[in-house]
Write a structure and sequence with these properties.
Elements: H1 3-27, H2 33-56, H3 58-65, H4 75-101, H5 108-131, H6 159-174, H7 183-205, H8 209-215
Helix pairs in contact: 1-2, 1-3, 1-4, 2-3, 2-5, 4-6, 4-7, 5-6, 6-7
Length: 225
């Protein structure tokens, strides 16, 4: 096993430990079927995508391993990534606290719908990875990078962020919480801030990106924005 794959496996193991802790400790119970199903769906999707990248695109996997506030170069992105990390934790913790204290209750069909949203979001992310091998975990431009205009990029300029938001929206619902959905507003604000800054960077450093912006109107959601 090469270094990148080994780091990816370690990352998966850490995730498999951290996320259940973020859910079951605040919930203070293991009698939480929504959490078991939601986490199983989440982990299955993450594992499948990681295994795909290990085999089909190791370079992209390496790029994705470099992520987070520490990896960013610009101060604004360090702040954005720190806020995003906090919001990501809240997406799991708030629904778990909701389950414990009974602030709200999503019906079973909403929890199932949330699990389906998680799968839909990860599916879109998969198609982004398959189309664009330059989808780095940090804002940068590789030497050989080019503008991608096919696949989901033909419809919105930031399809991976769209897929991530769909997936994140599914998590509180999948965990059986309606209150947790409000955390997505904070995450959406952070992602919008990041993509605006990312576009400013790409306009300056990626040849052809200005023309791409002119040809693809919508940044995040088709026919909306």
């Amino acid at each position: 096993m090469n270094v990148v794959n080994r780091r990816a496996v370690v990352g998966l193991v850490q995730l498999f430990i951290a996320l259940p802790a973020l859910v079951f400790l605040p919930a203070w119970t293991l009698n939480y079927w929504q959490a078991w199903v939601c986490l199983a769906v989440f982990f299955a999707a993450v594992t499948a995508i990681t295994l795909y990248l290990m085999k089909a695109d190791p370079a992209l996997l390496a790029r994705r391993m470099k992520a987070g506030a520490v990896a960013e170069q610009e101060r604004s992105q360090k702040i954005i990534q720190s806020l995003a990390a906090g919001a990501f934790v809240a997406v799991f913790v708030v629904p778990a606290l909701d389950h414990r204290y009974g602030w709200s209750r999503a019906p079973a069909y909403a929890a199932v719908g949330g699990d389906l949203l998680i799968l839909a979001g990860f599916t879109l992310v998969f198609f982004v990875f398959r189309e664009n091998s330059f989808t780095s975990g940090v804002i940068e431009v590789a030497t050989e990078q080019r503008v991608i205009t096919a696949g989901p990029y033909a419809h919105v300029r930031h399809p991976m962020y769209l897929g991530s938001l769909v997936m994140l929206l599914g998590i509180p619902l999948g965990l059986g919480s309606l209150c947790g959905v409000f955390v997505i507003f904070a995450m959406t604000a952070v992602i919008v801030w990041r993509l605006i800054k990312e576009e400013e960077f790409l306009e300056k450093h990626l040849p052809g990106y200005v023309d791409y912006i002119k040809s693809v109107k919508y940044r995040l959601v088709p026919f909306v924005w």
